[in-house]
Amino acid sequence: MASKESRLTATLLTSILAAVLGSLQIGYHTGNVNAPAKIIEEFFNHTWRARHNESMPEHSLTLLWSLSVSIKDFGALLGSLGVKYLADSHGRRNSILIVNCLSMVGACLMAASKVCQSFEVLILGRLVFGLFCGLVMSLNPLYIQEVSPTNLRGAFATLNQVSFASGILLGMVAGLETVLGTEHNWAMMLSLSLIPAFAQYLVLPFCPESPRYLLINRGEEDKAEAALQRLRGSADKVITELDEMKEEAAHTQTGVTIQEFFKKHRYKQPIIIVLIINLGSQLSGFNAIINYSTRMFQAKFDEAKYLTLGVGAVNVTFTLVAFFLMERAGRRKLLLTGFISIAVCTLLMTIVDSVLHLVPELRSLQVLLVFCLISAYELGPGPISWFIAAELFDQPGRPIAMAFTSMLNWGGKFVLALIFPPLLKVCGAYVYLLFMTVALLAFTFTWIRLPETRGRTFDDIAEEFRGAEGIPLNNKTGFNTFT
Questions:
Q1: Angle between helices 265-282 and 286-298 in degrees, nearest 10
Q2: Strands, E assignment, 260-340
Q3: From its phi and psi, is residue 90 left (phi > 0), alpha (psi between -120 and 50) or beta?
Q4: Would you say 383 and 158 are in contact if contact means Cβ atoms under 8 Å apart?
Q5: Is 480 helix (H, G, I), strand (E, B) or coil?
Q6: What are phi and psi of 474, to 5 degrees?
Q7: What residue stretch is flagged as signal peptide (predicted)?
Q8: Contact 2, 236 (CB under 8 A)
Q9: Res 3: pLDDT
Q10: How far is 171 from 192, CA to CA, in rounded Å?
């Protein structure tokens, strides 16, 4: 098939790199609040003292800081609700450009909070930025998957996670006291995400819209062909891919409502798969490790902040490993490897934490296990959970599926941020056994139900689910997809 031999073109690479500037911003604001937390808490206290001539009560300060951190995830949950409307009404590329303004407004509010002497402005900025997070982490994979050729689709979708992980590392570095995480510079640190936001406005408008959106959603074949010509650079590949899209369009209806999405039989299996993979990914412990890594290490190491940087570096390294393996090993193998590795790591972390007070020398092993868990997450569950829905659903259902993915991911992060501290107090080291159980359940379900999507057209994958009504199907690796 000609489309399988598609090569990387300058336009395709530029389009993808311009799109993932959004996830870079999200990663940056995920990583930059960890190290300078005490300095920003002091700003909250100073603002309160200036208004009320007394210090803020300790419990109120802790609650306010927790709200400041978690409000981004709550905003992302709300933002997810707008994915379908924007993607179908304005197109994939244009929607990314529209929501980028939310990032800029949020960053400006966060940076202005110090000048305004108002922690409410900072919290509002985090909320607005959260809306951007929920929208763009669905719109990016949607756009990338639809502009990429079949043989590069998974690898390029993984670049969204590479950019996110790189943003986390940049945020961690910027937040260090020796860089910008100081009393004088923290507001400027929060404004630096404006740089990639401006860069996206300079580049993405000149990149093509999704050809699938133009042909299947809008019926504009000439524009779709022109976009494909720019993305592929070969007339033969354009003709072949257009024929594939027309064949897919013949099997799909023009639009699907949210109610129809959850009622249609052909969507039931993909919905369950997306639900399990995303919840398995988010509730298997990774986000708890990222959010509380500095505190975990502080109890055992003097240079905890720099060990946290190691967490960020490992995070980036293994998203790059996933990028290179995605089209070689496939989604299924990487997910299975990731989930079983997470289960082993969390079991070992339970054992090490339980005996750490008896054998303090094991603290280095604990750090190694944290790094291994992060590696396992980014090898498969991390990147794949964000884009697998775009491969499992047909064109009408894809925007709703991506909104569903975003809600599950951000909802999982939000829930874990709320329940991990009290669970840690109640369960101690045994809290990791809960994460192990989640990872094992996700592994088992993936083994039984998930078909391999590598190297298959969207219509080929959709056909498997259209035929799923009581019929045992086999994927290309020989495992039963449905039983």
A1: 10
A2: none
A3: alpha
A4: yes
A5: strand
A6: -120, 140
A7: 1-22
A8: yes
A9: 42
A10: 9
Residue type present at position 348: L
Which residues have a Cβ under 8 Å from the Cβ of 217 and sit 6 or more positions away? 88, 254, 395
C-alpha 321/C-alpha 316 separation (Å) is: 9
- Counted residue by residue, the chain has a size of 483
- Look-up: residue for tokens 């510079």? 185
**Alpha carbon distance 33, 46 (integer Å):** 18
Residues 6+ apart with CB under 8 A from 361: none
What is the rounded average pLDDT of the residues 200-228? Answer: 94
Tokens of 150: 């079949």
Q: If phi over 0 gives left and psi between -120 and 50 gives alpha, with beta otherwise, what is residue 255?
A: beta
How many Å separate Cα 345 from the centre of its chain? 22
DSSP per-residue letters across 202-254: HHGGGSPPPHHIIIIIT--HHHHHHHHHHHH--HHHHHHHHHHHHHHHHHS-S
Query: Using an 8 Å Cβ cutoff, are 123 and 68 in contact?
Result: yes
At 137, list the tokens. 């982490």
pLDDT digits (tens, 9 = 90+) for 111-140: 999 999 999 999 999 999 999 999 999 999
Per the DSSP assignment, residues forming a β-bridge with 474 are: 480
| Buried/exposed 229-255: b ≥16 CB within 10 Å, e otherwise | bbbbbbeebbebbbebbeebbeebeee
Longest dimension (CA), the chain: 74
Token pair listed for 154: 């998974």
Among the listed residues 382, 296, 298, the one whose alpha carbon sits nearest the alpha carbon of residue 339: 382
Q: How far apart are CA 120 and CA 97, in angstroms?
A: 27
Q: How far is CA 164 from CA 27, 282, 348, in A?
A: 4, 15, 28
- Residues 377 and 107: their CA atoms lie apart, in Å, by 29
In this model, does residue 41 exceed pLDDT 50?
yes
Q: Report the distance separating Cα 331 and Cα 155, nearest Å.
A: 10
Residue type, 357: H
Tokens, residue 97: 């450009």
End-to-end CA distance of the chain: 31
Cα→Cα distances 73→21, 26, 66, 370, Å: 19, 11, 11, 23
- Rounded distance, CA 260 to CA 397, Å? 9
Cα–Cα separations (whole angstroms), residue 200 to 85, 103, 214, 276: 22, 11, 22, 33
Assign residue 209 a region: left if phi > 0, alpha if psi is -120 to 50, beta otherwise? beta
Answer yes or no: are the C-beta atoms of 135 and 102 closer than 8 Å: yes
Q: How many CB atoms lie within 10 A of CB 426?
A: 9
- Angle among Cα 319, 325, 326 to the nearest 5 degrees reads 85
